[in-house]
Amino acid sequence: MGVTIAIDCMGGDHGPSVTVPAAFAFLRSHPDAKAILVGREDVLTPLLEPRAAEFGARVRIHPASEVVAMDDPPAIAMRSKKDSSMRVAIDLVKEGAADAAVSAGNTGALMAISRFVLKTLPGIDRPAIAAVLPTLTGHTYVLDLGANVDCSAEHLLQFGIMGAMLVSAVDHVDRPRVGLLNIGEEVIKGNEVVKDAAELLRTSGLNFCGNVEGNDIFKGTAHVVVCDGFVGNVALKTTEGLAQMLGAFLREEFGRNLLTKLVALVAMPVLKRFKRRVDHRRYNGAPLLGLRGVVVKSHGSADALAYEHALAKAAEAAANKLLDRIVDRMASMNEVKA
Amino acid sequence: MGVTIAIDCMGGDHGPSVTVPAAFAFLRSHPDAKAILVGREDVLTPLLEPRAAEFGARVRIHPASEVVAMDDPPAIAMRSKKDSSMRVAIDLVKEGAADAAVSAGNTGALMAISRFVLKTLPGIDRPAIAAVLPTLTGHTYVLDLGANVDCSAEHLLQFGIMGAMLVSAVDHVDRPRVGLLNIGEEVIKGNEVVKDAAELLRTSGLNFCGNVEGNDIFKGTAHVVVCDGFVGNVALKTTEGLAQMLGAFLREEFGRNLLTKLVALVAMPVLKRFKRRVDHRRYNGAPLLGLRGVVVKSHGSADALAYEHALAKAAEAAANKLLDRIVDRMASMNEVKA
User: Could you tell me if A234 and B183 are in contact, meaning their C-beta atoms sit under 8 angstroms apart?
Assistant: First the structure.
């Protein structure tokens, strides 16, 4: 796929030491793709030079003199750092010089700048962030992940549409199953917004599979799980926390004494396969959906392998016309309404 | 501790085949405690008879002719099954014949009946359900778990107070740390209700440790994590779902072929220790807080070991005057305000 990705090389916890090697790995595995390395020339030039012959015109540096810090408030990042690598990467998408932008920088700034520069797609009130989680049968997208705290039923419907189009574009599933995150306690079945959203999703023409509960996420019941940003963020962080704790417990038990350490050596190949299966790096890359441009957020602490996955996801979304799919779907929904 | 527990022996997925053996085990490990087995006499008498000599007057049957089904709507369970084992167990608490009631039946019905029969404590608007989750350093209580979907800041404050008093009573922690579940994304830091609740908690006199995120739950940052019932339910179910998936992956990897099965045999003692550490049965028993009586909900699918843990938790809460602690704390809060 002949897409060009603008890479915010300065963003994230590790900056160019991760983003540049990841860009090279991405170019190797995507022979038709091109990359624009955005950031400080004095930093990037020496990193690119040894590989210049290998990639030729497929990679170039685009200078940007400033860097958005991980703790910069979004308003500051937007107003007073107009030559930041993050901003310039998004500008390149806006100008059509790149098909997608990827950044491991501060989520709030990335969303604010993307919204300001690119604007939202017709019919979309609020962009959303979609994260991928592993399931028993593959993986599932959950959105929103923290961009929108108080959502209306209409917003949740839009998240469902954007998520479904993302899965179509990236995973090539024709009619992805869309589930609405709800609670199953008999006391009450969800609040009013969720009830109204279920009604909207039911008549949306999407392949709506009804309410799903927190535990259903990992069963792969739905390809797309829709929820507001507060709930989605809690669910994602809870997942991260539990996985870390279980990992720590496993390490502690296998590291308890000489005997258990020997057992660990024997069990290593099996444990490695297990670990690979739930390796969060393989799920890195959260698309910002609903914008007039493809923007993918990498985890701030991503290593080169994880960052490469985010780049691949951006390329896949751009090559498979994610934006056109969302626009078409929104238009056909509005025709039905009219 | 000389407490008497009323046991809804008919509730849950397994009924008396689990609840009665659990009651016996509980009586053995709590030599001062008494149990009232509530349910159909024709079912319970033959189960009790062989043990009658062992426990003597410490255990008796209290007849109840009806059973609340797992899918009975709360209103039906309350109005048309007045002689259900669940209702009668709670009536025994109301009358003072028992110090606490335990049920593995339908959560909605249990909450509705408990609220109707026992009423709420002074100053408490809404009862809440508190669940326990394991952490790196011990365990933490999360509430609410699904009784209240739309909460005000005042409600969240009350959950914090009830949770703190629960930890004082059950875990004997003097000033438990109370955290407010929030999201850390830079885009927005929580909605208005959560912001207001943080302010109320800050000036409450509780040991408020500020906002915690989903991943902090498992770090043991707080003894009590406060959130609304929708968010809490999603967090709990997500945790269950992820744990089940990781367990399934581990089993699959160790069961892949003859060699990995041999490795599993070698690793068994280590894996067992790991499993024991995160065994959800040890965390069974979710207190319904804010009622004029101690009521503990067991997981519907609990086995005898899990159910015994729920009974022990009810006994601990009753023996350590959970209700008085909540009432005193609410009263001292109101004095400060006045």
Answer: yes
